[in-house]
Amino acid sequence: MAFLPICKEDMKKRGWDELDFVFVCGDAYVDHPSFGHAIISRIIEDYGFRIGIIPQPDWRDSKSITVLGRPRIAFLVSAGNLDSMVAHYTSFKKPRTQDYYSPGMKMGKRPNRATIVYCNLIRKEYGDIPIIIGGIEASLRRFAHYDYWSDKVRASILIDSSADLLIYGMGEKPLFEILPRLKKGENIKEIRDVQGTCYVAKDIQHLEGKDYIIIDSYEKVKEDKVAYARAFAIQYREQNPYTGKIIVQPHKNLYVVQNPPAKPLTVEEMDYVYSLPYERNYHPIYEKEGGIKALEEVKFSIVSHRGCFGGCNFCALHFHQGRIIQKRSHKSILEEVKKLTKFPDFKGYIHDVGGPTANFRNPACSLQLERGACKNRQCLFPQPCKNLEVDHSEYFELLEKIRKIKGVKKVFIRSGIRYDYLLLDKNYRKFLEKLCMHHISGQLKIAPEHISNNVLKYMGKPPKEVYEKFVKEYFETNKRLNKKQYIIPYLMSGHPGTKLEDAIELAVFLKRNGFVPEQVQDFYPTPGTVSTTMYYTELDPFTLEKVYVPKTLKEKMMQRALLHFHNPKNYDLVYEALKIAKREDLIGYGKDHLIPPKPKDGGNKSVSKDNRRKKNSAGNKK
After folding, report:
1. Which residues contact 363 (CB under 8 A, 6 or more apart)?
2. Is 546 helix (H, G, I), strand (E, B) or coil?
3. What angle, rounded to 10 degrees, do the helices at 500-512 and 571-580 form?
4. Helix axis angle, 225-237 to 530-537, nearest 10°
5. CA 62 to CA 84: how far, in whole Å?
6. Contact 99/118 with Cβ under 8 angstroms?
7. Residue pair 592/512 in contact by the 8 Å Cβ criterion
């Protein structure tokens, strides 16, 4: 095993004077299967092609894109594991100070809108050479999309990047079809029929006789929010690899064409992907700069499956990994764990075994394997589907097998569980007991996101009563086991549909339960989600009903401040929010008050004794 070439000297060591592909990536080079560039490049290598990587080229100098020479077949371009704009800015559009995917967490190693910038550099140096783009940044921008950072609708990234092909989703399945065809001499510019890909066409005569839908043009959706919402609804409903139609969106005198999503990987294909000869480390060139922080959490974690049928409206997984679960075999996972135990820095702890949702290990129902996920309904929301198959036995059997491997001390679950799904299992108390006994490091991460049923409705999350039931069961289980373990709930402020009174309801809930949240984020409108469409259009894309959206910076700051009402720095914002909402009943010194009165009202601005709480992520009442 060896790292793939990143310079001409590396090519010479392999006896290569030319590469077939050059992969340009916005992340540092980490040869680990949790990093998209590693998986894609190792597959291409395994198919017999010569490939090298240019990680984080200097976008100020187009010559940085030439360090490996002109590839024989094509350039591959990805912004990295994260959208470059999300990597650079907070939800309040403030610049971040650290980049976990760059050496030493230094900022400035990649440009804004990295995919477009890299493609433009390639075009400047190599003209009409074929370019394939992929990764989450490209995947979620394949159609005309709302761009939060510029507050406008942008064209498909295929137009702005001038790329020849866009592989959306996880990418492996399209590659399994594309690579053999390239070996036979086909031109990338002529490959237009692969599921999981998009391309630009001058006309759509070649689609005659095929099942396709034309949605409103870029020009139309840019000016008309109703048209935008309708176009998004069609895109969303056609994300089915078995029944989805080809979607066409005009862009001036061109057409962006999306083929239906790629079919899910089989167990054998998933096993193949994770069996490739990864170095499982960052490239040695980063050692002197402090390494790559993003590797730390995943180095001793296991991806057991992909996909999520949870249907959260703010999550882009529907548009990227899809709703159909794709899993690895027990044998494949156990072999990977055994490899990890041989690493000199392995301390006996597997940090995680899971996927987007840890306990979604199997498809929601057997029908999905034949027809895909349902077009007009979710598996869990607003009520669990009658066809939902709930059984955690296979997942916990896997965890038990891992625990028995020599050298493994503990197996944690950190990718989070869907507590509503767990409670649907007829044996949920049995599995909750196993979870608490063996797989929690003192704190369990779950994501209720909010506590107002009005907000949860817009999020696509279960009602607060389900969360309260789980919390009760969780603490009762810990009590039976004589354990003192806690819950860390992820919470979100400012989501579409959230009014000030909803934010206050959440603050009151936190006060009554004596909980000071640590995991809090403001809603971040990223391309490809239902919630972002609601944010931009102020409409539900499926019903076209009006949705209230907190858009002003002041209101978003007030909603965020209410989550930490106990913090003296938030006093003025919380006070103003309570006044606006006419909830002065929550101002005072009693145990049910959020903040004390202002000095002019006979109080002082410091937080009352009752409201002062030691910051403790595990401050839940049992």
Report:
1. 309, 324, 325, 369, 389
2. strand
3. 120
4. 170
5. 19
6. no
7. yes
- The 10s digit of each residue's pLDDT in 194-246 is 999 999 999 999 999 999 999 999 999 999 999 999 999 999 999 999 999 99
- The rounded distance, in Å, linking the Cα atoms of 235 and 197 is 14
How far is residue 392 from each of residues 56, 350, 431, 553, 591, measured CA to CA in Å? 41, 20, 7, 43, 41
Tell me the whole-structure pTM to 2 decimals: 0.93
Q: What is the largest CA-CA distance in the chain?
A: 83
Whether the Cβ atoms of residue 123 and residue 201 lie closer than 8 Å to each other: no
Distance CA 514, CA 486 (A): 13
Return all residues near 380 (Cβ < 8 A) that are at least 6 apart: 309, 310, 311, 388, 418, 420, 421, 462
Contact present, 24 and 77 (Cβ < 8 Å)? yes
Confidence of residue 605 (pLDDT cuts 50, 70, 90): low
108: left (phi over 0), alpha (psi -120 to 50) or beta: left
In terms of Cβ atoms closer than 10 Å to its own Cβ (0-12, 13-18, 19+), residue 605 is middle
Would the pLDDT of 54 be above 60?
yes
Burial of 248 (0-12, 13-18, 19+ CB in 10 A): middle
Q: CA-CA distance, 88 to 101, in Å (whole number)? A: 11
Q: What distance in Å separates the CA atoms of residue 235 and residue 229, rounded to the nearest whole number?
A: 10
159: region left, alpha or beta (phi > 0 left; psi from -120 to 50 alpha)? alpha
For residues 526-546, average pLDDT: 97
pLDDT in the model for residue 608: 46
Give the list of residues 6+ apart from residue 543 with CB closer than 8 angstroms, or none: none
**Reported confidence tier of residue 431, pLDDT bands at 50, 70, 90:** very high
Confidence (pLDDT) at 516: 84
* Degrees, nearest 5: CA angle 31-37-39: 70
List, in order, residues 6 or more apart from 159 with CB less than 8 Å away.
200, 218, 251, 254, 256
> HSE on the CB side for 270, CA within 13 Å?
22
